[in-house]
Amino acid sequence: MGGDILFLAHRLPFPPDRGDRIRSAHVLRALAEIAPVHVGCFVDDDANRAFEGELAALAASTCVITRRKPLPLAGVEAVLKARPISLAAYADARLSAWVQEKLASGRFAAVFVFSGQMGQFVPQSWQGRLVVDLCDVDSAKFEAYARNARGPMARIHAREGRLLAQVEAALAARADHTLLISEAEAALFASRAPQARSIQVMGNGIDADYFAPDTVKPAAGMVGAGPHLLFTGQMDYPPNVAAVVCMARRILPLVQRDVPGAQFHIVGRAPSAEVRALANIPGCTVHGAVADMRPYLAAADAVVAPLAIARGVQNKVLEAMAMARPIVLSAEAATGIAAEHGVHFAIGGDDAHFAAQIVKLLVNPPVARAMGANARRFVTENQSWPAMLAGMPAFLGMDREEARSAA
């Protein structure tokens, strides 16, 4: 089946420097190899538009909208229309008109929706192929937020989870294929959306040539007294915030009791006020955004990921594994990665157990080095992006050569 592809994403895929953009950038590149691809997406601010050139180099046409709707306004719209806030936040007449115009041309064979928020732009009249990449089950994430919140926020999160679950299920009932990031997420979604036509797993990959321990020098800010522990991620994202607060305030003191020089480094953009306050804790440094995460990974004696809420596969874990770092992580953060505890990473339980797993690595460098080497070997053999995306033509019902020649 020949024809163009329409790709809709809630964020411009470039630069691929955070989990969703890494996945969407690789998906977009794979789509562009199959057929001409037209991209509709949002940017959070005008500064992000600096990366439109990378998008234009791949896409046959684009519609990039700066998302300026304040969250309170999105909340009011959501209440008035009985829909999730996360959909109201992305509702945009300009993008909707662009999508309608494109699909009316008759040249499109498939629509690829990246993230559930973007399904609202696919008209009910669309009869072509529809593939939806939910990545993970967002509604379940909001349900988890509700369980961990109190007062009005608990009710807001519960409402969001309930309404978003309905949207996800309805979208999956329309889609030829709904993609999830792991077997666990796929099984969870299947239990919540029995009307889904086809639920498939498309895992996250890793560029092991880019994330390689011999490609960069260790970051100067992490060289010297230590050992050094590292957490990476978007630092205004609530699960990441909760993880580093737990690490700095509860786990780090336990580690320092046995390894007095242990230092904890938090690296990632947009640290919240709660995260910035952790810099007042002895041995804790908040670095904020950095141009390249690899030097910090290279400098780390161990990487930690004590996430209590973690949906899908954690790119931060795959990146650390590719950089041959020993990792201590929660069972939640290990979800979707078919690696072995004690061989490729160490899974920690409660605070004391998590700290003990870290100490075990810090006081035994040969064991830590062996774990890092095993981790890199695992991702190079099992988690390459080409392997993860190999099923893309089949999902779209398109053959690369047929689609390109038809275009």
From TrEMBL:
Organism: Alteraurantiacibacter lauratis
CDD domains attached to this UniProt entry: GT4_PimA-like
UniProt cross-references to NCBIfam families, sorted A to Z: stp1 (TIGR03087)
Protein name: TIGR03087 family PEP-CTERM/XrtA system glycosyltransferase
Pfam families recorded: Glyco_trans_1_4
InterPro entries xrefs: Sugar_tfrase_PEP-CTERM_Stp1
